[in-house]
Amino acid sequence: MADDLKIKVNGRLSPVAASPDTPLLYVLTNELNLWGPRFGCGLAQCGSCSVLADGVEIRSCVTPVGAVANKSLTTFEGLAAWYAEQKGLAQAPALHPLQQAFIDEQAPQCGYCYNGMLIKGSELLAQTPRPSEAQIRSHMDGHLCRCGSYPRIMKAIQLASTTMAGATR
Amino acid sequence: MNAILTDTSAGPLSRRDLLKGGGALVVGFCIGGSALPALAARGDAAGPPDPNTIDSWIAVHADNTATVYLGKGEFGQGNTTGLLQIAGEELDLDMNQLRSVQLDTNTVPNQGATTSSSSIHRGGPQVRAAAAEARQALLALASTRLGVQTGSLTVSKGVVSIDGHPSRSVSYGALLGDKPFNVKFTGIAPQKPINRYKLVGTRVPRVDIPDKMTGKYVYMQQVRVPDMLHGRVVRPRGQGAYGDGAKPLSIDESSIAGIPGARIVRKGDFVGVVAEREWDAVKAARELKVSWKESATLPGNADLFDRMRAAKTTDTVIADWGDAAKAFAGAAHVASSSYRCPYQSHAPFAANCALADVGPNGALVMSSTQDIYNSRDMLAEVLGLPVAKVRVQYYEGSGTFGRSCYEDAAQAAAVMSQAVGKPVRVQFMRSDELGWDDYGPAHLADVRAGIDAGGKLVAYEYHGWQHGWMVNETTHELALLTPPKERTTGAGSIPVNRMSTGSMYAVANRRVVSHAVPMVGYLKGAPLRSPLDLSFAFASEQTIDELAFLAKIDPLEFRRNNIGDERWLGVLNAAAEAAAWKPRVAASSLSAAEIVTGRGIGLGTHHVSYGAAVAEIEVNRRTGNIVATRIYGALDAGQVINPALVENQIVGQMIQAVSRTLKEEVTFDKNGVTSLDWVSYPVLRFAEHPHVTPIVVQRLDEPSTGAGEEVMGATAAAVANAFFDATGVRLRQYPLTPERVKAALAART
User: Fold this and answer.
1) Of B481, B8, B435, nearest to B266 (Cα)?
2) The whole model's pTM is what?
3) Cβ–Cβ of B221/A76 closer than 8 Å?
4) Which residues, numbered 14 to 43 in chain A, qualify as contacts with chain B under a Cβ-Cβ cut-off of 8 Å?
5) What average pLDDT does the segment B143-155 reach?
6) Domain B28-214 carries which CATH code?
7) CATH H-level superfamily of A6-77
8) Residues of A with CB below 8 A from B278's CB?
9) CB contact at 8 A, B563 and B504
10) Complex prediction ipTM
C-alpha cells in the first residue's frame, strides 16, 4: 500500500502506515502520537487541527497525508524550534513567545482551540512581526473559539509581537 | 502499561493496577504529582468515598503538600484554581503546595454535577469546611507535638509554630505525612475570618493553563489505550422529531465490505461502526448504507412557534403577586408584545469523545461528563451492569456549556465496547454533535408591563412556552428501545425562571406563568448555559426598555427609578459607569446614514447573582449586518474568590451571548435538523468580536454565588435594546440576522 510514504514532521522523517488518502490529522495523532493538532470539526472550518506546511498554516483534518510528503511540517510540538530557526537563534527557547504570552495573559478558557490559535498566530507573527489589530482580526478569523477568549488571544499576540521584537540572536 | 484495559475477563477491572499504572490514564489535571501512595486504598472500591470523613476530601503528604479531592470538574472556568484557593486559605498553604486529582467515581467525593455555576457557590463551602476541619486536626497534632495550647500556634505555608517562637515549629508533612486523618467531617470547625484572608480575593493564575499551553494537558479527545478500536455512530444526518427515534429498516453490510476491519455494531435501533484505524471508522460510518424509517413530523422553523402556542400545555403559575389585571387597567402606559427565541446548540468547539472498556464483570468509561456519578448510573442501565461495577473517569473536552453530547458519546462507546469485547473510542463527528445535540429549547413569550404617569412600574405579566429536557440519552433510548422520557420535575418541565422575569424591579403586581409544551414532536432539549435566561431577558428587558421609551425617560434612569435592591443597582451603575453612559431617551438621535450606531442596557440573572450589561453596536441598514463594537458587563457574585477568574467568565459570557443573540439558530425542516456544521450553525468569529470590559462587583462579606451565566441575558438584552436605539425599530425574534434586520427596517416604512 503506502510502504514508501514518509512525512517530515518537526524536522524528523517518519514512515506512514496509513493509506495516502488518510487525512494527515489521523496520522499525526494516531501514528506519531502528537497531541498538538486535534480534532474539532473534520471539515476545515474551525482550525483545531492546524499545522504549518513549509511555514504556511493548513488544516490537517482534510489534507491527505499523501499530499504533504514533500513538505516540511511543523506542529505545536515543533513551534519553538521552528521559531528559533526563523530567528536564527543558536538554541530553541523552551516555548514559542506566543505560548508564553498565552500563559502571561491567562488567555484560554478550555484551551482546546489553542493549537490552532498558536499555529495561526505564529504564522502571522512570522509574516507580519508588528501586526495591527485589524491585521490580527483578519488573519485569525478562520479560527473559532467557543469560550469567547478572542480578546485575550488578541492581547497575547500583541504581547508576543513586542517580546519578539526585543529578541535578538 | 495499562494492561487492565484489555483485561476484560478478569472480573472487576483491576483498579489497583490502574491506579498505580501512571501514564495516560491517571493524568488529567493532577498538578505536579501522581497517584498517592498514602491512600493506596482509595480507588480500590466503587465510590463515592464517605463524605463524612476528612480523608475523603484532603490528604497531607510528607513533602508538606496536600491533595484536595475536588468533586467538581474543570471545564476551563478555572474552578479548580478557585477551589484550591479556598482550601489553601483555610489550611494556610500556598498554591504551589496544593493539587487536585482527576475526577473518578472511585476516588473523589460526590459534590454533585458541575452545572448551574455551582462549583464555588455550592462546592466552595464544602471544601472550605473540610479544609477548616483538616486544619483543626493538624493543629491538635501540633499542639501535642510542641506541648502548647492550639491557641498559641500560628501556621504559615503548612508550618506550625509557637507564637513568638518561630524556631519551635513542625510542618503538616511531619505531623501527618501520607497518613490518614481518621477525623470525622462535622462541618463545624471554626473557619478563618474574612479579614484575615490572604489567598481568597486575589488574582491567582490558573493552575491548568501552563499544561494547556505547553501541550502536556490531556483532553478527552487525546486519550488512547492499547488494543483500542475507533468507533463512530451511524444515524440519520440531523435528528428528527423527538419520540420518532431513528429506526434502521435495513442495513446494507456490503456497502462497507471494502473497508478493512470495519464492523457494524447494532443494539436495538443503535447503529455504530468500529475499525482498527480511525480513518476506516470515519469512512465506514459515512459509507454504510442504512435505510431509515421516514419521519416528517417536525414543525420546521417556519411553524415552530405556532405549534408551540397551540400545544396542549401544562400550565403553572410561577408568581402571582398583587392584582396585575387591575393594575394594567389603571396604567398610564402599557407595553405588550410576543417574543420568539430559537433552539440553540451547545456546539462545543470540539465534538464530544469518549472511551469505554466494558467486560462481563465491569466497565471503565472515560468521558467529559459534567457529572461522573450520574453518568455512572446511566451507563449501568445501558450496559445492564450493577452501578458498583461501572467506573467513570473525567477528562476535560472543550467547553461544553451544559449537556452537550458527552453522555451520548460515552454510552455509544460503552455499547460498542460491550459488543466487541475491546476498548472502543467514540469520536462524534461535527454533524453528530450539531445534529444530535440536546438543544437549549426554543421559547415563546408574551410579555406585558405597565407604568404610572410618574414612570413607576405598576404591573408586570410574563407568559412563557417551552418544552423541557431529556432524562435518558439518545444511545440509551435507541439501544434499549425505551420510550421518550422528558424531565417532569417542578412545573412539569423547565419552568419560566421568575428570577429572570421582572424580579429585579419593585413591582407590586406581578404574574409569571409557565406553559409547559410536551417535548415529543419537537427537538431534544437539555440545559444550555443560562438555560432560557437569555431568552427571558431578551423578552423581559426589551419590554422594560419600551416603557422607558413611552415615558420619555433615559433607559438607565428608568431602571434606577424602578429597582428595589441595592445589589441590582450596584451592577447597573457599574456597567453604566464603565460605559460612560450619558442620559438620553432611546432612539432620540436617529440617523439616515447607511451605518447607524446605538447603545443599550440590560439586566440578567440565573439563580442568585446579579448581572448587567451595556452594549454599543453598529447596524448597516443596507446589508442588515449588526456589529457589536463594545460590551461592558458587570457581575455581583457575592464573595469573589478570584477576580481574574470571574472577569474571564464575564468576558466569555459577553462574547458567547453576542454570538447567540446575533447568529445562532438551529435550523430544521419537517424531517430533521439541517444546521450540521459551522457554516449552517455560525458562531461569532474572531474578526467580529467586540471590545469587552468586565467589571467584578466584589462583596467579600456576602456568600459566593454563581458567576458563569448571569451576564448572558443582560448582554442579549443590551444588544437588542441597542438595536432599537440605533434604528427606532424593535426586533422581537433572535438571532438578529441580516435578513430579520432588513425585513424589520423595510416594514417600518
Assistant:
1) B481
2) 0.95
3) no
4) 18-19, 21-23, 26, 29-30, 33, 35-36, 38-43
5) 97
6) 3.30.365.10
7) Beta-grasp domain (3.10.20.30)
8) 26, 29-30
9) yes
10) 0.97
